[in-house]
Amino acid sequence: MFKATIKSLLSRKLRLVLSALAVVLGVMFVSGSFVLTDTLQRSFTDLFSSAFANVDVSVTPKAEKGKEPQPLTPQAIADVKAVPGVASAVGDVQGSARPIGKNGKVITTSGSPRFGFNWTGTGQEKIRDGRAPQAENEVAVGGFLATTGGFKVGDDISLLTLEPKKTFKISGIYEYAGGRDSLGGEISVAFTEPVAQQLLLGKKDVYSGITVTAAQGTSDDALRDAVAAKLGSSYDVKTGATLAKEQADQINEGLKFFNYVLLGFAGIALFVGIFIILNTFSIIVAQRTRELALLRSMGASRGQVIGSVVLEALVIGLIASIVGLGAGIGVGALLATIFSSLGGSSLQLAGIGVPMSAIISSFAVGMVVTVVAAVMPALRASRIAPVAAMREAATPDRPLTKITITGAAVAALGGTSLGFGFNQASLPLIFGGILVAFVGVALLTPILSKPMVSLIGRLLSWSMPGLLGRRNSARNPRRTAITAAALMVGISLITGVSVVLTSATKSIEKLASGQLQTDLIISGEGQMEGQPASFRRDVLTKIEQTDGVESAVGWSQDGVLQGEDQLFAIGVTDMPALATMFALKPKSGDITPLEDGQVALPEDLAAEKGWTVGSTVSLQLAKAAQPQSFTVGFIWAKSQVLQGALVLPESASKDFRSDQIAQAFVQVRPGTNVADVQKRVEPLLADNPEITVQDRSGFVKQTTAQFDTVLLMIQILLALAILIAVLGVINTLALSVIERTRELGLLRAIGMRRAQVMRMITVESVVISVFGAVLGLAVGLALGVATVQALKDQGISEIGFPWVTMVQYLVVAAVVGVVAAILPAIRAARLNVLDAIAYE
Amino acid sequence: MSASDGVAARAVDVWKSYGSGDAAVTALAGVSVDLEKSRFTAIMGPSGSGKSTLMHCLAGLDDVTSGEVWVGDTKVTGLKDRGLTELRRDKVGFIFQQFNLLPTLTAEENITLPLAIGGKKVDQAWFDVVVDTVGLRDRLTHRPTQLSGGQQQRVACARALVSRPEVVFADEPTGNLDSQSGAEVLGFLQRSAREFGQTIVMVTHDPNAASYADRVIFLKDGHIVRELLSPSADEVLDTMKHLDSPEMIESSAGGHV
Q1: How many residue pairs from chains A and B have C-beta atoms closer than 8 A?
Q2: Contact check, Cβ <8 Å, B88/A463
């Protein structure tokens, strides 16, 4: 039996290659994800251990929740120096610093930090060119910044720090051990200590940390304990090794999430792969009916027949896993290399590694998926009666009743799970529900395929080859259905996401046109480290005085602590003006300018907190020594524009981490051209290149632009699922061509041209693909609408349908159909007429 | 040279061999034959005599090693795929032993398939004549699976005739049929030649089938060895029995019959 299995495996190479390819691609994605994240994790671990190589013990002020940590004083450094076993204790100053490039734009990184620090001469930085900064107007820049920004010693460089743009002279360029430009793609500049303190911490004579080195014979742990004992409980004292591990862990946590996302898409790809393999095995079993029946009549048991099909699946799964693992290592390595050089950052890769998890998951996934897909066909094979060997091999049309009822039940189960998932906000239930719903719909497709295929086919069957192609695609509803269902999965997911994003865009647009009564929006484009980009208050005053400006409102923002709850608060310059611009309606109390000690909040937040006008609220502001009391002045009716925020008087801003203006809104005088005012306002913000001035439509565009990026990412990731589905179409067509060899021979014998044969196959392919796309669009719309309904409370109030995108997917599906048909069609057209007629 | 003037298909010194070197097998060894218009010709011979090969070569389904083949005014030898396809579509009709119909099409669609492929209009009057002659009027909307073997073969006959080809080639058309269905099909082929003037060339190894033909050509080892005009079944059977005798082989030396 084993020998017979292997022999029959080898005799159907093409078929097996095609079905195995689906598994290979899925496994490749799985192992690639593991290899990529493992390589990156080890690289980051290396990065941080080298970043903290010079640190034996580090001291930082302990951050109390909701409060700005108190910076370290020179006294603390002196205290640490006095601890026995300390060789040196150096005060560090570090804070955000964003250089402006020669093109006037702020230089960005792909996620690596941008910071400034005080040049102490004791760090890892070694001067490569020039010298350390000595004067107030001098800085040294890292090799990486010098390369990316094209800076040389002696050049001027403008920097954004806590203060607006300031220009310095580059006195030197530094590098790290081994001549490296940066540790991990970060952009850094070094100031003299007083300048660093002023620009990065905002105060003279303060430090953000102390780097301590141990004297000979003192262990890091002992030193840490000694320093901690000396300084008391208001400081965090950690060894360099701990710090390196903490930071690496933080990044690796993020990478883990990234890995889950990739694995999710791998899962989708494999899910689609199951359809393809199931189909292939079904067809193989159907074609082997006589062979299997012969084996049965010679005394093979049902178990042996099942075993033979499952063994075949195992062999395919094993080979596909090996190939997929190999390809995954390659892809993972390639992606890691791309990642490490993204945006010019120079993460040193710690050598490509193949973690055990990649190997285990590759084999587990590849073989389990294949065997699962082969079980149904194997069971069917075992039911073949021995007499079938004597009969003309024919696949009778089995009734679709059972499969349809099962499908409806499974789809309903999936839908219910999805509904519960949305209700409970449970991701496992949602994703499980979607997958189960897919299986249900896939089971329903055979019954749908008859009317749908003939409808779609009608559009394509204006000629005899077209008619034949259409009829052929309706011939085996199960096969057509499974092939189309594989395509459905990818397309429905993309469509679902598109519906949600279109709805979100539409909601934002409606919001902007209905409730945002402001003409210009001034806000930070990029996020600087931890804090939004902001500008000085006097700039807002200048904007207010600009010709054509009716009113201008700005706010500074920060998180505040109410008990244990972190709340978002804004300090608004002119609340009534803001209420007009945002079309805020009072719910209780009147919208008045807030006086010191007053707070205002939206209706839903008030309800959640149980606060009414006159309630006293205790809030801890970041820079305030202790919590302050505020009285609720008014509550505004629920608004989509300003929600979930406490409004504090302008005076409270001084206790925010930054009291600069983070967002501002301008209303122009009636009859004034908005664009003209925009042109007059923009120069006022010339020193803040991170701040943009936009009109309403520009603002909406910028806000919704991120959706396009999300959609593109998902499209790229789901392209794999669609590629596998295309393999399925090719597979189905190739098998059909083999099955119908004699038919093709007959058609050619009675005068069908090669081009007509190809057209016939192409129509069949396009009908299947378009059928899959239509299913996908329908299921995707349903998924999208369900999601939008569930997100109604999150601000997606409108439902939008991405018609253009949907038509595009349909066109893509048709193109996919044409492409998938190429090889099978050529094969069909090349058949030798005589051989084909005589084909058994 | 032309094959017209009463000749529907012509083979001139046709050689056909398969394989090469020691393994070469000669299927046709210099066959020359004229197949007259409006005649029902049967090609007979034992297995391996080359009778099917001769038909395939005449019909443009297979190419010849040397020699020339003509169908009507068309020189088949040397045609490329496109030309051969058009020849098969416009000038030749086929009836095979089995698997003659497309399962996805109705009987009517199967009959008009060659016209549909060629983008030609159906001559309704002729279609009616053909359909009535084969007696399929009430079966036109049926699928092949709903028809008996004999009915299916009659559909195939109608399909071969409906485009009024120069020649209809039938390859063992009764091989899969019971004797009564076979007789119906043969009777129909005979009538097509006599009443409609349709040229028919049939390959068979069944003496009874051959007895329906106006002319029977006997092939052996790639040579034409004998021919009979309007023979009875017994005469054909008798001739078949004596194909092995020496004088028969002698008489084939000239080749052209």
Answers
A1: 68
A2: no
What's the pLDDT at A510? Answer: 83
**pLDDT at res. A389:** 60
The verdict on a CB contact (< 8 Å) between B89 and A752 is yes
Q: Would you place residue B244 in the very low, low, confident or very high pLDDT band (cuts 50, 70, 90)?
A: low
Contact A750 B81 (CB under 8 A): no
Looking at chain A, the whole-number percentage of residues with pLDDT higher than 70 is: 94
Q: Which residues of A touch B61 (CB under 8 A)?
A: 749, 833-834
Contact at CB, B100 and A748, closer than 8 angstroms: no
pLDDT confidence tier of residue B155, bands split at 50, 70 and 90: very high
The C-alpha of A745 sits at a distance from chain B's nearest C-alpha, in angstroms, of 10
H helix or E strand, kind and range, residue B1 = none
3-state SS, residue B239: helix
- Reported confidence tier of residue A11, pLDDT bands at 50, 70, 90: low
Q: Are A746 and B90 within 8 A, CB to CB?
A: no
Which long-range contacts link A652-656 to residues 24+ away (Cβ below 8 Å)?
A: A652/A569, A652/A571, A652/A596, A652/A621, A653/A556, A653/A571, A654/A623, A655/A621, A655/A622, A655/A623, A655/A624, A655/A628, A656/A556, A656/A557, A656/A558, A656/A569, A656/A571, A656/A621, A656/A622, A656/A623
Q: Can you spell out the DSSP letters for A159-174?
A: EESSSS-EEEEEEEEE
Residues 14 through 73 of chain B touching chain A, CB cutoff 8 Å: 56, 61-62
pLDDT band of A470, cuts 50, 70, 90: confident
- Neighboring chain B residues of A754 at a CB cutoff of 8 Å: 81-82, 85
Considering only the beta carbons, identify the residue of B90, B99, B117 that sits closest to A756.
B117
High-pLDDT (> 90) share of chain A, %: 15
Nearest CA in chain B to A840: B99
Contact (CB, 8 A) for A812 and A715: no
Handedness of CA B247, B249, B255, B257 (dihedral sign): positive
Please indicate whether residue B10 or residue A179 has the higher confidence score (pLDDT).
B10
Instruction: Give the ipTM of the model, two decimals please.
Output: 0.82
Chain A residues closer than 8 Å to B152 by CB: none
- C-alpha distances (whole Å) from A636 to each of A378, A586, A632 are 66, 4, 11
- The answer to whether B143 faces chain A, any CB pair under 8 Å, is no
pLDDT value for A509: 84
Provide the chain A residues 119-158 that lie in CB contact (below 8 A) with chain B. Answer: none
Q: What number is the average pLDDT over the span A425-430?
A: 77
Predicted pLDDT at A342: 63
Question: Which chain B positions have a beta carbon within 8 Å of A834's beta carbon?
Answer: 56, 61-62
Best interface-test mutation with A: which of B61, B85, B164 has the largest number of A CBs within 10 A? B85
Interface test with A, best of B104, B145, B157 (most A CBs within 10 A): B104
The pLDDT of residue A344 is above 50: no
pLDDT digits (tens, 9 = 90+) for A727-770: 888 888 888 888 788 888 888 888 888 888 998 899 889 989 99
Query: Distance from A395 to chain B by nearest Cα, in Å?
Result: 13
Question: Which burial class, exposed, middle or buried, applies to A438 when counting CB atoms under 10 A from its CB (0-12, 13-18, 19+)?
Answer: buried
Task: Give the DSSP per-residue string, A639-694.
Answer: -SSS-SEEEEEGGGGGGSS--SBSEEEEEEPTT--HHHHHHHHGGGGTT-TTEEEE
List pLDDT tens digits, range A526-550.
554 556 778 888 888 999 898 989 9
Query: Do B102 and A834 count as a contact with CB atoms less than 8 A apart?
Result: no
**3-state SS, residue B28:** strand
Q: Find all residues with CB under 8 Å of B254, minimum gap 6, and list them.
A: none
A709: left (phi over 0), alpha (psi -120 to 50) or beta: alpha
Question: Would you state the structure tokens that stand for residue A481, as one six-digit string?
Answer: 């259905």
